[in-house]
Amino acid sequence: MMIQNGILKAIPGDEEITEPTPGQIMRSRALRHWGLMIGGTVLGIILILALLAPIIAPHDPYTQSLSDRLQPPVWDTGGSLKHVLGTDQVGRDYLSRLLYGAQISLMIGFATVLISGFIGVSLGVMAGYFGGRVDMFINYLITVRLSIPGVLLALAVVQLIGGSLPVVITVLGFMLWVRFAVVIRSATMQIRNMDYIKAARAAGCSSLRMIITQILPNVLNQFVVIATLEAAHAILLEAALSFLGIGVQPPLPSWGLMINEGKDYMFFKPYLISIPGIALFCLVLSINLVGDGVRDVTAPENRN
What we know:
Blueprint: E1 2-4, E2 7-9, H1 22-32, H2 34-51, H3 53-56, H4 94-130, H5 132-146, H6 150-161, H7 165-175, H8 178-191, H9 195-202, H10 207-218, H11 220-243, H12 255-262, H13 271-298
Antiparallel strand pairs: 1-2
Helix pairs in contact: 1-13, 2-4, 2-13, 4-5, 4-7, 4-8, 4-11, 6-7, 7-11, 8-11, 11-12, 11-13, 12-13
């Protein structure tokens, strides 16, 4: 700054340099992360298509028409715009079933993460914060759960109870909490030794208040990353159970069930398997890319 003719003027190049805020830094990192951008775009498209399925689906996904059975997709010989992706073995429009199947897959991933996340975060926070016998007991539960193969456990429980959408969501929710518990426990053990936690405890702050106001906000990053990975895991497990015939039951348009129904025609009508298989691949890959991108953007120092 300088005074000229009694007027305060700014010297060129002397402007104040403002530091970017943490939000701006994180937004810049996100825009430069190709994996996060590609995964988020694909996941967003699938989510929009699933939400708009009742509007944009050309046919009822449950309506059968034996006269239109096994119609090829539009790019194949004999295909037509009436059924862009063809029809299945009972004449149901494949595009409509694919759109409604996205709803089921996303619902399973979201609902499973809610259940398993609540169980895992609750156990992990209690084990990491209280320690001692509480930690020993929760570690025992984690060890017992890890000793049982997850797929076998899901197969046994669903086979005993019976396959349906609510049963699959409940079983997967009560099965996939271990990773939440292990990671959140480790993060909580690190946070509880911080100076501000000790100061709050010395000031008489209750354990419940410290967990809600101090611990949970600081483990949110770990929760989001694990949630994306477990959502993809749950979608794949549901597809596997439905492919084996003990998951989501007909006539619901689950992608795994669509693959199961088309396996008898895989050599003559390969689109019956390839279309839902590609959709499942794109959904799981996009969720994993988003989870990996969130980890890189919010905690880049943890990666080489």
